[in-house]
């Protein structure tokens, strides 16, 4: 009788079988052989197995050219890789990693066959990112040795590995594969069994919402992608990423997530089904949300949806001087941006002292730019001279654009727009920097709603390139054309949005952050593991909890409430944990404690 796996000391995982030699399987095999493991590559197709060997030869040759491997190390690595077309080749493996297509039928056939081939102590790992590890384990003769080992594509480059335990998995098996991941130079994250695990669980909900946003014709594919890259620092926009992953793959993952969660945010957007069934699966087919030079090519080519690159069709208005209302960080940052572009700026606040303090803050920012060699002292001085502080909004009488950056409170903004209406000359454009409030409500506080538009800058305004240009149903065409042209002159990238809560960035970002909070609230994963997963697996510059603490938990909660109120989706209801922390005064870095604690300055 075999000794139970949980009682057996595990030998080092030296011989590893990889079942399925597609892109992911080949990448995992490369990681293993370069780390000194003997790899048995198995695929039912001789042609695919041959392609895997050729790909490994090519990638290791590149590594030699880049001096990351010696010729001898390359030869040794290639000698450790053998390919077969029959599962019986896995008989002597210490670990089997299956990376076959995302189908229960296929994976269950593989696991049942392996039960009769491998040793009793051999660990069986599935590379699934969408299917239930528990369900696969339950069908195995020894469910305690089955777990998930989820690498990210491309496996040689991506550091994250999610180690997925079911309720049946033996702790010794988890320890063994976790140690293996560390030996491979990866960063393993321990997670429980639910579709998408951590990284994909958060990522695919966000991608699905982006697809829905595009399908609703709320914004163009180019604007959605540009907004998330420039507004959040992401390496790719969501629609381009869907094309890279494969629209059909994304749909499969989302179907599995929705079957488990019944959360409408995971219900695949109809456009994913339409594109999949039409064979428009992304880069691999040559067309998805975008069109590509050829199947498999990363080069996007123009198609019928590509925007024209000419100037505005509607002539704009002349803007020579700008009024910025407010004295906080955003107001001073926007004033700095316009002054750097050569515009005369009136910086008005409720008192002369507040306006002077805001100008002084700009002076310090310009001085830092001089210290860093980004501008000369003369240029900084002439920029600062263009900014005139004022203690009354009457100073906006002659400006061509009046832009408010005051508190995110609708009543306060409406009162200010009433003042703009009385003070500003006819034809002046009136703009709000709101990130979550209805622009049309500000417009209705004036007698000239056609002149009102949203210009949502991102903090810090001098550094962030994105401006969401929000037109209401009442905004005049020439006002819209003027603001888009103006964004180019101040070296910002404009994206067009309709007047609804969250616009593009916040409407996609905050549900993702809220879902991360729910993961912690449900004790599914730790703060540190979730942050690591999104940085290493998703390419995010900050993990969700790092970002929440920077933004402020009170600000985040307010935006979540606005989104929930606007879209009435139960999945957008703010996580109770977020509400509890805000009620306790734990607002993030600014209070010294949020999801984490910070040293007091």
From TrEMBL:
Domain 3-hydroxyacyl-CoA dehydrogenase NAD binding positions: 15-193, 322-499
Pathway: Lipid metabolism; butanoate metabolism
Record GO biological process: fatty acid beta-oxidation
GO molecular function terms attached to this record: 3-hydroxybutyryl-CoA dehydrogenase activity; NAD+ binding
InterPro entries given in the database record: 3-OHacyl-CoA_DH_NAD-bd (IPR006176), 3HC_DH_C (IPR006108), 6-PGluconate_DH-like_C_sf (IPR008927), 6PGD_dom2 (IPR013328), NAD(P)-bd_dom_sf (IPR036291)
Record keywords, A-Z: Oxidoreductase
All copies of domain 3-hydroxyacyl-CoA dehydrogenase C-terminal, residue ranges: 196-292, 502-598
Family: Belongs to the 3-hydroxyacyl-CoA dehydrogenase family.
Protein name (Swiss-Prot/TrEMBL): Oxidoreductase
